[in-house]
Write a structure and sequence with these properties.
Layout (H helix, E strand, L loop, with lengths): L6 E6 L17 E9 L7 E2 L2 E2 H15 L6 E8 L15 E9 H13 L9 H8 L9 E9 L9 H10 L7 E4 L15 E4 L3 H16 L3 E7 L11 E6 L5 E6 L10 E3 L5 E6 L5 E7 L5 E7 L2 E8 L10 E5 L6 E6 L2 E6 L1 E7 L5 E8 L4 E6 L3 E6 L4 E9 L2 E7 L6 E6 L2 E9 L9 E7 L4 E5 L4
Parallel strand pairs: 2-5, 2-7, 8-9, 10-16, 17-23, 24-30
Antiparallel strand pairs: 1-7, 3-4, 5-6, 10-13, 11-12, 11-14, 14-15, 17-20, 18-19, 18-21, 21-22, 24-27, 25-26, 25-28, 28-29
Helix pairs in contact: 1-2, 3-4
Length: about 475
């Protein structure tokens, strides 16, 4: 028996549209949530700051408390692996029991909390049989949404097939939508659960808690959303960017997500209240916005955006160091608006298309019409700059020009407020023009031609013009 995962399986049985609110709101149907809680021996193992069972109990108590005060919600508790000890070569695969039947109100929540508090893990992990028996835990109801949340740290231990149980339930008209949360394991080891689970990696207590909130949220609201960030080919496999759903009327941010692909490279499913009209902003570079989004209650909604991306790399030839003052301005070629500022010797993902680049060297370098292609890297390489040290006889005024053939292009002013000044310049031929602030005639202007070489220091002494 493999014993190193923590799995939450959220199973949505037959149900129609539902937008659950706190007490006092109207709900069209009754939502019934059955928690199936792992009481097997492996739950005693150490994980993070404590044992798995202590952490699971604590988070269950928090979750149950958060469900207090909801109208049209009933809860129940089934446990397994808690009645019979497991011995080498011996396990009781019938060790599963409905401990607290369905009931409404805070009183039933307290019963479930009390039973979980008294649990001592000791047995095996009959997941398939617990799922099979749980179908009978729900009394007859003509207007109910029936949800199962299975909490376990192991996969099937009784040589039975949870996938077969899932197929059998589907053949009876029962629809399964599970979630699987593993504690920092290789996702390929969960392939046996692919038929019944979406994988979440609970690498810490914080992600464990966050995942449980997602499961419970979907239990109370069966409107789901999938955001497809499509590549140029139309495949929705762009990901790992922030996105925000705003209330379109108030512009208040209601949902913050990092876009994610699940374990099988599909866009993750989100649980979102269908009562609002939304504006979605996806923080690619540049940003993508989709306005006036309405979600249909009770179904799975898909939002499509063209978000094909490539990579821009800008670096200094022969240097892996940082150049904190050397930024790259990425501009819209139509408006010349600055879209993004990139650091030198770094890479940035951009939406496919053309951009104008301006590198804040001295002199500035421009690369207009730089093309970004789908899933490709565009590399801009510039020469390593050199250093210029200037010694002045007195403070004064002046500037530096770039010399290119017969052309003379202004580069920057001289500060010349101290007797020594330093510049970082791109390789090339330059002219320095300087006049002492003690001189009152333009004829005393000093000119000095000099050359800057990559990675070299050039000293310019004006003490002896």
């Amino acid at each position: 028996m493999i014993r190193y995962i923590l799995t939450f399986i959220f199973t949505l049985f037959i149900g129609g549209s539902f937008a659950q609110q706190k007490a006092g709101s109207e709900a069209a149907e009754l939502t019934r949530v059955l928690f199936i809680f792992d009481g097997s021996n492996s739950m005693n193992a150490q994980w993070q700051s404590s044992s798995k069972i202590k952490i699971a109990k604590s988070l269950m108590r928090e979750t149950l408390d958060s469900l207090k005060g909801f109208d049209n919600v009933e809860l129940a508790l089934r446990m397994y692996g808690h009645q019979y000890k497991i011995y080498p070569g011996q396990q009781n695969c019938e060790d599963t029991k409905l401990e607290v039947p369905f009931g409404a109100g805070d009183e039933n929540i307290e019963k479930i909390k009390t039973r979980i508090r008294s649990l001592t893990p000791q047995g095996t992990t009959p997941i398939a049989r617990s799922l099979e028996y749980s179908a009978n835990d729900f009394p007859e109801c003509s207007n109910c949404r029936n949800v199962i949340v299975l909490i376990t740290d192991g996969i099937e231990a009784c040589d039975e097939d949870p996938c077969a149980v899932a197929r059998a339930l589907r053949s009876k008209g029962i629809i399964l939508k599970p979630f699987v949360i593993g504690i920092g394991i290789d996702p390929t080891k969960l392939l046996s659960l692919k038929c019944i689970g979406k994988y979440y990696d609970a690498t810490s207590e914080a992600t464990f808690k966050s995942a449980l909130k997602v499961v419970v949220s979907e239990a109370l609201n069966n409107t789901t959303v999938q955001v497809n960030l499509n590549k140029e080919s139309g495949k929705p496999t762009e990901t790992d960017v922030p996105m925000v759903f705003y209330n379109r009327k108030t512009q208040v941010a209601l949902y913050n997500f990092m876009h994610t692909l699940d374990n099988w490279q599909n866009p993750d499913t989100l649980s979102i209240d269908p009562l609002n009209i939304y504006r979605l902003e996806v923080f690619t570079i540049p940003h993508l916005v989709k306005d006036s989004i309405r979600f249909k209650p009770g179904v799975h909604n898909i939002v499509e955006l063209d978000a094909g991306q490539g990579e821009l790399t800008v670096h200094v030839n022969g240097s892996g160091g940082k150049f904190p003052g050397m930024k790259v301005l990425i501009k819209n070629p139509q408006t010349n608006e600055i879209i993004h500022v990139q650091h030198m010797n770094s890479s940035t993902k951009l939406l496919i298309g053309e951009y104008n680049l301006e590198i804040l060297t001295l002199p500035r370098l421009k690369f207009d019409g730089t093309k970004i292609n789908q899933s490709k890297r565009t590399t801009i390489e510039i020469r390593q700059p050199g250093n210029l040290n200037i010694l002045y006889p007195t403070t004064g005024y002046g500037c530096i020009y770039l010399l290119e053939g017969d052309r003379q292009e202004w580069v920057c002013p001289l500060e010349a407020k101290e007797l020594m000044e330093q510049f970082v310049l791109q390789p090339g031929k330059y002219k320095l023009v300087y006049r002492s602030d003690r001189s009152r005639r333009a004829a005393y202007t000093v000119e000095k031609d000099f050359r800057i070489s990559s990675g070299q220091i050039t000293d310019l002494n004006l003490l002896h013009p």
